[in-house]
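User: Predict the structure for this protein chain, please.
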Amino acid sequence: MSEVLLVVGTRKGLFTGRRRGGRWELSGPFFPAQAVYAAAIDTRGPVPRLLAGCDSAHWGPSVFHSDDLGASWVEPDRPAVAFPQDTGASLERVWQLHPATGGDPSVVYAGTEPAALFRSVDRGESFELVRPLWEHPTRSRWEPGGGGEAVHTVVTDRRDPAAVTVAVSTAGVFRSRDGGASWDPSNDGVSAVFLPDPHPEFGQCVHKIAQDAGDLDRLYLQNHWGVYRSDDAGGHWTDIGAGLPSDFGFAVAAHPHRPDTAYVFPITADSDRVPADRRCRVFRTSDAGAGWEGLSAGLPEGDHFGTVLRDALRTDDADPAGVYFGNRNGELYASADDGDSWRQIAAHLPDVLCVRAAVVN
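Assistant: Here is the predicted structure, written as structure tokens:
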């Protein structure tokens, strides 16, 4: 029997959740005292595989995997993600774990700090550096953002395994159409209001990208000021922030089945990082950004200060879709009806850093 599995990475461990008969049961923490910035649920193989990018203050960063829905975890004998010696770099953190869509079901990408992309062909047990992005001619001019200099978003195209898009803080969006052999900046139309030239070729502070369910060339982007849409796989971006209480924020997620449908969680400002109007609301567009509606049924009323980070708003692949978010207050919320209504399923967790959800057997 199928059920929804929820994976929640926090600043002090990872939690898993199972929905049975309309009720949620949480387990954990796994990896106590370790920050878990990246997690993935890979349902492409014969059994689902969970991946967790953990950051131990004592042992350093590592990638673990589980083939029994989180009951037990395996760490490779050798570091799964490591910079080659000739780069002179060392791994600070794994920010993203992305099972590739399309092509070989064993391929998984990892985005890291320092900003780099790694590729695995064994479902995340070992990774190799994608050197052309690491050696990109603009790299010496990339600047770290408030969270560091990191590849924090990876988007792949199920129609073409050679098409990969990444977002780098704060270098912006880069695209490859040849499996990572070459990369082009793809930031046309995205503003960098904090730079003397607000429209540079690269240098934008992209916070997150999500791909539309229907039109795979349609992408949604939450920037450091600005919500954008691209209709040509990142070739050009159009501002769609009108109608939101603020176009600053960190997270964006797309509906798994409904075209033109995406979700954001607006934040007041970069200088005041609390929910817009101090209200706990997810905003949804059902027309690719032409309009937005606030979703708050079941969410806290009154002043609220729980900030949702870039990877802490996510959908599952159920129908109707589940939508989930966690915040820095340690609260976790779920909707089972595309975001129309919500309920709190956990409180008093450590800071929520990432959320993933999927239907599993």
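The mean pLDDT is 96.
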